[in-house]
Amino acid sequence: MSTPLNPRLTAALSVEQRERLLQYARRVEFPEETRLFKEGGYADRFWIIRTGTVTLDVEVPGKRPAVVDSVNAGELLGWSWLFEPYQWHFGAETMTRVRAHEFDAATVRMMMDADPTFGFALDHFVGQMLAHRLFSARVRLLDLYAPHGSGL
């Protein structure tokens, strides 16, 4: 049984565009506690999670990475592949066993360039997801590091 895609992705892309994108997917599986990428590393791929949960984190000097968000079934993992210099802005680690569709970033960027309608739709979706991730990260970091009782 296939996990439904995020409703925002299905709204952003037509059925034909989603099917074309999924033709370039490679099914992958990762065990629990697998580091998928590290903040600052080269972003050459992205995933649509089919099952499981991935945590997103930021590096904190002298401490373990701080978890700022999670990505679940049906959601897109990774946006740094779309913007030069193609470096991860967060780190990611599987919290549970994860099955996903994996995409080669260069291939998808070429598809976007070749079909501006598809490119615009995917850009728009990734932008919405990016805004959500940054807001979640901001809220979580304030929870973790704002002085208690500061009103922040």
UniProtKB/TrEMBL annotation:
Domain Cyclic nucleotide-binding: 9-78
Coiled-coil intervals, chain numbering: none
Span of the signal peptide: none
A UniProt-annotated Pfam family: cNMP_binding
InterPro entries: cNMP-bd_dom, cNMP-bd_dom_sf, RmlC-like_jellyroll
Transmembrane regions listed in the UniProt entry: none
Name assigned to this protein: Cyclic nucleotide-binding domain-containing protein
Source organism per UniProt: [Kitasatospora] papulosa
